[in-house]
Design the sequence.
């Protein structure tokens, strides 16, 4: 039976909604998660997590880029992340692997000072956003973030800049991606 114009529009709308629902489902299905204990902090945006099967995973925190070694605030950034996550149970949510074999995602941890009376303790602090909030990382505009996260991370960096905290207390902080590509001049000590 041939479709009239109105029937065709209804079918196309239905098809569009089905495709939209499937793409949304696929995006959420691509995000994987696991819990583990942080056993190492390489720098202000990379941690090592030991999962329940005793497998170590290197995690690159999505959406941030911390100062490089030798760059101002690199040690402070690493120490901040270390205090926040070292030895703690974290929930890792990831959906890609970078060219160095690290999982790229979020690390959720129970905030310091929370006296947890239930097990497991809720992990409500996004370690990457926390690094931005205290001015110890830049928001990294990469493909690994959705629009909502990107806006929230951008806001956190903007607020830290306005408060002139952490690396934003410097007169002209150099982004790590510029530092890595030699656009930084000579290395400065912390």
Sequence:
């Amino acid at each position: 039976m041939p479709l009239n114009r109105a029937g065709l529009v209804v079918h196309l709308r239905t098809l569009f909604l089905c495709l939209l629902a499937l793409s949304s489902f696929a995006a959420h299905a691509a995000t994987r998660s696991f819990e583990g204990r942080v056993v190492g902090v390489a720098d202000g945006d990379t941690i090592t997590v030991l999962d329940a099967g005793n497998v170590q995973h290197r995690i690159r925190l999505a959406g941030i880029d911390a100062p490089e070694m030798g760059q101002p605030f690199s040690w402070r950034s690493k120490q901040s992340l270390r205090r926040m996550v070292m030895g703690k149970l974290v929930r890792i949510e990831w959906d890609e692997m970078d060219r160095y074999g690290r999982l790229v995602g979020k690390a959720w941890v129970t905030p310091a000072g929370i006296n947890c009376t239930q097990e497991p303790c809720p992990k409500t602090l996004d370690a990457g956003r926390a690094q931005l909030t205290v001015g110890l990382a830049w928001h990294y505009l990469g493909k690994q973030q959705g629009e909502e996260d990107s806006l929230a991370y951008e806001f956190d960096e903007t607020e830290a800049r306005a408060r002139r905290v952490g690396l934003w207390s410097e007169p002209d902080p150099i982004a790590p991606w510029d530092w890595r590509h030699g656009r930084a001049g000579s290395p400065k000590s912390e």
About this structure: Residues 8-29, 186-190 have pLDDT under 50 and may be disordered. The radius of gyration is 21 Å. Residues 30-111+119-180 form a domain with the OB fold (Dihydrolipoamide Acetyltransferase, E2P) fold (CATH 2.40.50.90).
